[in-house]
Amino acid sequence: MTSSTVTSSQSPRPPRPNLAFRRLRGQRSPAEFAAEVRRAAREIGERVSCDARYIGRVEAGEIRCPNYAYERVFLHMFPGRTLTDLGFVPRSQVRGRAARAAADGTFPSRTAGPAAPRTASGEPFDRPFHPSEDHEESDVLRRAFMTRGGATVAAASLGPLGFAFDARAADRPVRRAGTSEVNALEEAVRQIRVLDDQHGADGLYRRAAAPLRAAYALLDAGASRRSLDSRLHSGAGELAISVGWLAHDSGRFDDARSHYAEALATARMSGDAALEAHAFCNMAFLARDAGRPREAIRAAQAAHRAARGLGSHRLLSLIALREAGGWAGLSDRTGCAQALARAQALYERGSEDADPEWMSFYGRAELEGLEAQCWSALGDWTRAARHARRAAQLQKPHFARNTALYTAELADDLARDGRPDEAAAAGMRVLDLLDQVQSSRVHTMLAGTARVLLPHRRAAGVSAFLERHANTPRTV
């Protein structure tokens, strides 16, 4: 059953090659041009995971309009040109009927009156829809996995309004995955990360489990060509980690542990060192949050062993921060400080083409935020507040979830450092973000801050914060 708010994205016409973009590439290979795109992104503070395959898809006309990050990069590379000059079509033509209606403030409905956005199965969403969300390709975003011929692939839909799953397809035979399915799987992983950055995990986790089941059904059926097999394994593993992170950030630690272990098993079976490093990195973070600091250290060290040959100093830097969190959990100030120093030194070596795509969130703000958490665990509230403040100031606005997280960390550190008025002001800024961020981690931190501030209700601004916090509904 499909909702009237979701229209088919199948087009009877094949994609039209983007000849204008191809001319701009000139004599450079797709890989060389992709490297130039990544360099241009760094010049303006963007992080895009452009590779030769992405360039090929643009030139083939599969990507008719880039997302907003790529748009900013391309216009920076070719000043004075518009997207149309670069061979792309207007965004309104790509997003389809539902997005055009959203731009007008209305949604199609079978009945009169305003209709709430719905999933592909017809169920209403509890997360507000924001027309400004980045959607790179309307066809892929409306269905993460596709139909081929007369047989239905174990179908999951990752649409502009969220996730849905066609339960009727679950028991049908699954054909081997081809290029279209593998591309869609990789896009599903990217879109989950975008939505998490913007809104947090709580509203996404249940919907993301269905595409994961579909991914492993595809993995079980296998790839149609040997050349696709490693991408299929990597995509399924990365999706498992992404879903695991949504469980982790929404406080479902047992579910997260299971998803991370599934990704690790996939990495081991396929010999994928990059996927193994990612899985261990997240397992270290989870162990720290679950109060198992020694396990966090061991997992971080395992991640380091897997990542040594990958050529990414930024990845090794993040792994060192995961280890630092474990030492902090053991109250080992020396071990923590040494790991933090390694993380800082590795970070300063700069970004590289070998940096994994999933690390787009890892910049100076995240480094400062994770260091703040370490000092907080060690009880050094003044130093923790200093790093948390830097993290909140450095974070780009479109990472709303992380902005809320760093500011919540700041509020808690200030409260415990005996600065209740500053803590209340920071807490108010977090409350301002909760209409667009749904993260159990942020809610839990803010509740802890409120408890610390209770004895200080007469301090400037504290009473107002406590009253507003008490009246803020928690939407999940």
TrEMBL record:
Q: Where is the composition biased (Polar residues)?
A: 1-11
Region Disordered: what ranges?
1-20, 99-139
- Domain of life according to the entry: Bacteria
Q: Where is the composition biased (Basic and acidic residues)?
A: 124-139
Q: By its UniProt entry, which InterPro entries does this protein fall under?
A: TPR-like_helical_dom_sf
The protein's name is C1 regulatory protein
